[in-house]
Amino acid sequence: MGLQGIQVRGLSDSGWFLDNKQYRRTDCIDSITCAPTEAIKRGIRYWNGIVPKGCRQQYKEGEEWNCFFGYKIYPTLRCPVFIVQWLFDEAQLTADNVHLSGQPVQEGQWTYIQNLGRELRSTLKDVSASFAPACLSHEVITRSHWMEIQVKGTSLPRALYCWDRSLHDINKPGRAPIKGCPVHLIDSCPWPHCNPTCPTIRDQYTGQEMNVIQFLMHMGFDVQKMAQQQGVEPNKLLGMLSSGS
Question: Which residue ranges in the chain fall short of pLDDT 50?
Answer without folding.
Answer: none
